[in-house]
Amino acid sequence: MNNLRFTExxxxxxxxxxxxxxxxxxxxxxRPKLQGLGxxxxxxxxxxxxDEMFVHVAKHARRSVNPPDDxxxxxxxxxxxxxxxxxxxxxxxxxxxxxWFALIYESPSRKxxxxxxxxTCQKSRAGCLTAFSGPxxxxxxxxxxxxxxxxxxxxxxxxxxxx
Length: 163
Known about the structure:
This is UPF0637 protein YktB. It holds the Pfam family DUF1054. InterPro entries: UPF0637 (IPR009403), UPF0637_domain_sf (IPR053707). Residues 133-163 are annotated as: Disordered. By secondary structure, the protein is α+β, with helices and mostly antiparallel strands. It folds into 2 domains: 1-102, 2-Layer Sandwich (BirA Bifunctional Protein, domain 2), CATH 3.30.930.20; 107-163, no CATH class. It contains 5 helices and 4 strands, in the order ααββββααα. It has helices spanning 8-12, 19-49, 110-123, 148-151, 154-162; strands at 54-57, 71-76, 87-92, 97-102. Strands 1-2-3-4 form a 4-stranded antiparallel sheet. Strand 3 and strand 4 form a beta hairpin. The chain is globular, with a radius of gyration of 17 Å. The two termini are 31 Å apart. Residues 129-163 have low confidence and may be disordered.
């Protein structure tokens, strides 16, 4: 797993000016690590969720002008895609690594899953969703943009979901 660790150079990838230059370095250095992390964690997530998890590394294929600010590997129970499904992601920004459970705007089940998470956490006494101030995921997850349900800490929320 040592070859899957992110280095300072990996974070600096997101400071490179220009789409072509940044994408070249991203494809050469960061994407192979994301793929490796995907292959490492997909079996673990499959066991934990009870569904086979498929690896989806961000390609940023629709970009034509602006370089990506972040990149990730996503895990979902569909081999064709992840955006319309609740999924897990591991990725990085120029400042930090992120690991989260995501449900993005393209998901038709976003509202029902949001309600399920609220009910589960509130019943668990963990109270991780006591003041839900935003959607379950934020496209620009800077620390100051965290919804209040995340500010109580992921350990508290995950403990509640496991009860």
